[in-house]
Structure formats: structure tokens, C-alpha cells
UniProtKB/TrEMBL annotation:
Gene3D superfamilies reported in the protein's UniProt record: 3.60.21.10
GO terms for MF: exonuclease activity
SUPFAM superfamilies: Metallo-dependent phosphatases
Calcineurin-like phosphoesterase domain mapped to chain residues: 1-218
Assembly with partners or alone: Heterodimer of SbcC and SbcD.
Record organism: Streptomyces lateritius
Gene: sbcD
Superkingdom to which the source organism belongs: Bacteria
Domain Nuclease SbcCD subunit D C-terminal, chain residue ranges per copy: 268-356
Name the record gives this protein: Nuclease SbcCD subunit D
Family: Belongs to the SbcD family.
Amino acid sequence: MRFLHTSDWHLGRSFHRVSLLDAQAAFLDHLVATVLEREVDAVLVAGDVYDRAVPPLSAVELFDTALHRLAEAGVPTVMISGNHDSARRLGVGAGLIGRAGIHLRTDPAGVGTPVLLTDAHGDVALYGLPYLEPALVRERFGVEKAGHEAVLGAAMDRVRADLAERSASTRSVVLAHAFVAGGEPSDSERDITVGGVAAVPAAVFDGVDYVALGHLHGSQAVTPRVRYSGSPLAYSFSEAEHRKTMWLIDLGPERGIEAAERIDCPVPRALARIRGRLDDLLADPALARHERSWVEATLTDPLRPAEPMARLAERFPHTLSLVFEPERTEGDPLASYAQRLRDRSDQQIAEDFVAHVRGGAGPDGAERTVLYGAFDDVRVDAAEREVSGR
């Protein structure tokens, strides 16, 4: 059985205030064409269909058109909600839509109930695990600690229990939206850290033949059977080196993956990150290849030059982001504050602040727990607001 695995469409999202609606429409055209040309048996969409809980009408219309085209093609689609989606909104009408072969899995209660497909070799059970916000589903899954590993583990226990009741020849696929250890993140994913821990081990998903993941925007294989499709478009300059693809997965007649192929997505415009003094960037012949790209320019001039964006735009008319990082010695007290914070989590920054105001004495264990709780409360409150649409 052949699957096309995709995720993280983020319909409605822009790129540095540049609309991506046409690019997203071109991707969906490409997806439907690939489904038909490569004789795909089912499409797997692993969450973050929309970029926010209440998407703009143009994004909803694009989504609606894509579903109609897939349904008309007679290709089953299994889709889960991600951490950017409002599960309740995305799941409206799921029962009726399911009759057309579009299976929306947005309710955590249904994780152990698969979509069953059949080929010449028997059944394939597809389980949809929507994004599980630990604090909101902990009680439902009967876990004591509100953590990603605990709730995903409980969800997978339900999957394995259902599989145990089926024929031993039943092949299985899980869709999930999570940060799995070993995955490489980018700057454009929303933080889902709980208690200072974001990643879950790939072993959580033991017992199934393929795991179609969403959340991380780079296409990658955590293990041969646990893969991220990545986003079809770049949503930050940190993705400038990404190859945007979908996974074409062939599930063999026996348990396991028979073949995996990356299908390239259309690129609306290349991304480039350039760095140096302004005059050098404007004169360097090696940068000619970036003159039609979307550009992020980092200027290292010791003193901020006059009208830098206007001057850059003369050579690089699609410059979207301008960053200033003046050249300074390592011990210079004016070194960029942003540089000092780079790659540090909110928790680490807060702990450093405590140490600073105490003359070097950082927080003890109990205080770290309080800080973890404060950050988690803020994140959970944001998640609840998205769910309710407030």
C-alpha cells in the first residue's frame, strides 16, 4: 500500500509579511497531481493544517478545495490536528466528511480507533493521534504526570491494545504531532516544551510499521520507520538549506516499509542568508545568485550604516529581514544581547536572571520547579485560548 505523507501546511501563514497563499495553492495542486501520477492509495496529513486556531477565510477556502479534490479522486485521506490548529474547529463535520473518504482525527478519545484500509495483502490500520496537550488530556488518559512522553505513551498503549485484537497480519500506521528525540528543529516551530522537556523518545511508537510525524519543519528520518515529512514551504530563514519534500511510503505485504522516496515540493522563491559589511555585500560578485531570492541580511558594520534596507534593496529587491550584529571583540561589554541569549530556552534565561539578581546564586530545585510551572501555565493558557477561540 502506498502512502503520501505530508504535514505542517500552515495555511494562512505569511513569510515576513509576504502572503504565501498562492504558493500554498501551488503546493496543494502539486500534492493532488502527485497522488494521481504516483497512484497513491492514501494521503497522511500529520497536523498543523492551519497556522492558527481561527484561520482567515482564504485559508479555509483553500483547505476546502483541497479536500474536495482528494475526495473526487477517490483517495482516502487521514488528517490529524496539530498544535497550531483548533482541534474542535478542524473536526467539525468529521463524521459526514468521513463518508467522502476524508478522515479527520482531532478527538483524543479516538486514538485507538483506526481507519481501516484493505489491499490484496490484507488490512492496514491507520491511527490518528492529534496533538495532545499534556495538561489538557492528562486526566482523560489516566496519567499522573502531565508530560508529552506520558500522554503519548498512554495513547500508544490504546493503539497497541487495538492492534492486539486484530489479525497478526494487520499492518499499522500512526500519525502523530510531536517533537521526537533525534529530530532537528528550526526557528519556525512553536515551542511545545512541558516542564522543561519537549522531546519524546522514538521508542514511544514501538509496535507499529510506520509513524508519520508532524511538527518539525525539516524533512527527516528519526529512524527508518519514524519520519517527519517537514513543511511544504519554508516559514523561516533557518530553513534556507531545507529541501522541502513529502514522503512517498510503500508498505510491503509483510510488516515494515518496502520503500521510501522524497517527493520535492514547488519552491516559490529561494531563500538566502547573507552576512558581512554592507559595502562588501553590495559589491561581492559571488552573491549575484541571491539577487532574486528572499534575503535575510546580517550587517556586521561596527557602526550602523545609513539607509541600509534601501541600499540593500537596490541589489537584492526581495530583502525581507535585516539583522545588525556589529563586529566586536569577545570581551566587549556592548556585545549583542541577542547573541548572549541565542540557543537558550526561556527556562535557562529565567534561571540566569535569578542568579544575576542574587549575585551568582541560581535557583534551587524547588525554585526551578516553580519556574517550570509558571512557563507551563502560560503555555497551557495559550493552548486553551486557541481551543476556545478566544
